[in-house]
Structures are given as C-alpha cells and as structure tokens.
Automatic annotation (TrEMBL):
Keywords assigned by UniProt, alphabetized: Oxidoreductase
Superkingdom classification of source: Bacteria
UniProt keyword annotation of Isomerase present: no
Record's protein name: NAD(P)-binding domain-containing protein
Transmembrane segments: none
Source species: Streptomyces durocortorensis
Gene3D superfamilies: FAD/NAD(P)-binding domain
Length: 365
C-alpha cells in the first residue's frame, strides 16, 4: 500500500487539467500525487473515436491549461491530433501518467484515507480526483424484440466509420450530436438510412454563444446539485446547424421518425402499422458516467446521481468529480480541474493543521 496525498483517476482532459494544477500547487508526481489511466496511450477517450471524426469536425476543443494546440490539420483524425497533443502535454509538464492501470474500486481506508485498488497495487490517498469520463459506459437502451434482430447492432462506441455500411439499410437511434454525425456520413454510402429519436430534435441556428453555453451548463449543474443523474451538456444545448447539417436536412437525411415500438428480425415496427427494413441498427444513445469503481463509497443519492457541489461529492468531501455532469466538455473539464485542486489543497492544509495540533497535544505536558 502506497500513501500519498492525491490520486487522480483518468488522464483525459479533466484528469490532465487536475494534474497540471496539482503540480502548480506544489505537489510532485509520484510523490504527492499520481495519475492512473487504463487506456494504452495518451489521449483520454479521444484515442478511441472513429477515424472519420476529423479534428475539423469536433465542436470546439478547448486547449488544456498552459499549452495551446496550434497548427493542427483539420483533416486528420481527432484521435491522432488530440492523442499527440496530450502526449506532448504530459511530457512538457512531467505528469508521469501510469498506464495502463485499471482502478477497480475505491473504498474507505485507515486513518481517514481512501483505498484505491488498482492493477498496480493499492494507493492510500487523502483525496481523490475522479476523471473517468463516460466513454467506458456506453448506454444501450432495451426494446422489445431486440434479441430477435438478425442484422448487426452496434453502438457509437464501436462505430467504425461509414465505409462498412456501403449498400446497407441503416437505422440510427438517438438524437444527439453523434447520431446526426453518423447519419450524415453513412448516407453517402448506405442503400438507405432511417433516423429514430425519442423526442423531436432541437436544431439551433446561430453561433454557439457563451451565454447559450452557460445556460446549458447551469441546467446540468442543477441536476447534479439535486442528486439526479447528469444529462450530457450537448443534450441541453440542442444541435448546432452547420452547413453540413443544413445540407443534410435539405436532402432529407435528417428526417426523423418517432421511437419505434418494437424491433423485428428484419427491422422495426410502430403500433400505427408503419415499419422499416434494416440490415444494421446503430445505437447513438449516449453514455453514462463511468463511476462504478466508486460504488463502495456509497455516494449515490436515491435519484441515482452523485450529488456534487462545484466538484466535491456532498457525501464525501475527499472525493472530487471532474468531467462529470456540468463539466463534461473540454472547457468544463479544464475549469473543474482547477476548482477540484483548490478544494483538495484546502482539505490537505486542514488535515496538516489537524496532524500538527494532535502532535503538539501529544507532547504537551
Ligand atoms: C463522440 C464524442 C464527441 C465529443 N466531442 C466533443 C467536442 O467536440 N468538444 C467538447 O468540448 N466535448 C466533446 N465531447 C465531450 C468530451 O467527452 C469531453 O469534452 C472531454 O473530452 C471529456 O474528458 P474527460 O477527461 O472527462 O474524459 P475522457 O476523455 O473520457 O477520459 C477519461 C479517462 O479515464 C480513464 N478511465 C476510465 N475509467 C477508468 C478506470 N476505472 N481506471 C483507470 N482509468 C479509467 C479512461 O481510460 C480515459 O482515458 C465529446 C464526447 C463524445 C462521446
């Protein structure tokens, strides 16, 4: 068991931002803190995103604190661009990320410490910064008849790019940014595409203003403060209308059907008698926070979410959640890293004062 001040789980945008601020606050990697990540390479979840998601197609990647991302080729896959940028960042600030290291559980430890159980042994920190994102927990809803479908079913997490769907009939489920991007790519290759969403998609004209972003973040923040499972920031901002989206709408690629009532061996059916035939169902139904390893700490509220104020878990002030709920965007993750480190440093100072007072008490006559 290794004692140190802080363990950061996850080396995506949120974890690296936290690590940067921990260094600035005076903690040393591998001494005061350690960053653990189970992915094989730098890049957080970006390293796994499909090759056709080029850097030019991402919605606005905010640079990590202290180092800009400049001169990136917009036609290169974002997995490569951001992977290389994160690798350079880790190197520049000497963050010494341990990978691949799986964190399986975090539980209560001795003397007010936490125990972080990992594939490289157990750490016993005074505070935890959890930055595990959502990519590891794809959400697949269940519908009647799903197991009878004879075609292929896959999720955004396994989306290989559009070429594999040449000549096929593809049913895309989900009204978020991933669903619309998949449709726009696949439509040029597939024999037919269909789009099914639970609610009417909201398209937003005009630039993504700061005020619009702030109000979306405030809505997610409110849910997290009330202990409800967070919604993605994108789900409350609506779908930005780019030139590509405008063209796709004109061509009918983004004509949406309501949610089907059941899946059949060859497609999907609605109670009103409509049906579609499909070779593929692509579930672009989003992700949930990857926080199962925190279960032993019992942080969840009856509403199903972890209640957090700023980044601090209300049920355990040693635990900070960054990239969670309102901070699940590149800009939000950056800020959350800084907020969490401020709070962690206060906690460490308090703990230090308490230890000094106890020692002074122990030697007092
Ligand atoms: C398809 C897609 C496109 C997006 N596009 C944009 C965009 O254009 N702009 C934007 O601002 N946001 C975008 N987002 C949101 C984006 O996910 C966040 O902005 C941000 O990149 C998330 O950073 P993160 O550090 O929270 O998570 P991640 O990048 O997911 O990093 C989490 C890290 O934790 C590690 N990890 C997880 N569990 C464990 C464990 N148990 N043990 C050890 N390590 C673990 C993972 O390996 C990973 O490296 C997009 C999201 C998706 C799904």
């Amino acid at each position: 068991m290794r004692e140190l001040d802080v363990v950061v789980i996850g080396a995506g945008q949120a974890g690296l931002s936290a690590a940067f601020h921990l260094r600035r606050a005076g903690l040393e990697p591998d001494d005061g803190f350690v960053v653990l990540d189970h992915a094989p390479r730098p890049g957080g979840a970006w390293q796994f995103r499909w090759p056709s998601l080029t850097y030019g197609k991402v919605h606005g990647m905010h640079a990590l604190p202290g180092m800009e991302l400049t001169g990136a080729d917009p036609d290169r896959p974002s997995s490569e661009v951001i992977g290389a940028y994160f690798a350079a960042y880790e190197e520049r600030f000497g963050l010494r990320v341990h990978r691949p290291v799986e964190v399986s559980a975090v539980r209560e430890g001795p003397g007010g410490r936490l125990l972080v159980e990992t594939s490289e042994g157990t750490y016993a920190p005074r505070a935890l910064i959890n930055a595990t994102g959502t990519w590891d927990r794809p959400f697949w809803p269940r519908y009647p008849g799903q197991e009878t479908f004879r075609g292929r079913q896959l999720h955004t997490v396994n989306y290989p790019g559009p070429e594999e769907f040449a000549g096929q009939r593809v049913l895309v489920v989900g009204g978020g940014a991933s669903g619309t991007q998949h449709l726009m790519e696949i439509a040029g290759h597939a024999a037919a595409t269909f789009w099914v969403t639970r609610s009417e998609p909201v398209f937003r004209e005009g630039p993504f203003t700061e005020e619009w972003g702030r109000s979306a973040v405030a809505m997610v923040e409110e849910r997290v403060r009330n202990g409800l499972p967070p919604r993605s920031v994108v789900s409350v901002t609506g779908l930005p209308v780019t030139d590509a989206v405008r063209r796709a709408r004109e061509q009918g690629v983004l004509d949406r059907l309501p949610m089907f009532d059941r899946i059949t061996p060859s497609g999907a059916e609605w109670d009103d008698g409509r049906s579609v035939e499909a070779d593929v169902i692509l579930w672009a139904t989003g992700f949930r926070p990857a926080v199962d390893h925190l279960a032993p700490l019992r942080l969840r509220e009856p509403g199903g979410g972890i209640r957090a104020e700023d980044t601090r878990a209300v049920r355990d002030r040693r635990v900070h959640l960054v990239g969670y709920g309102p901070s699940a965007s590149t800009i939000g993750a950056n800020r959350a890293g800084r907020t969490a480190v401020r709070s962690v440093m206060r906690l460490l100072e308090e703990a230090g004062r308490r230890r000094n007072a106890e020692r002074a008490g122990a030697v007092a006559p």
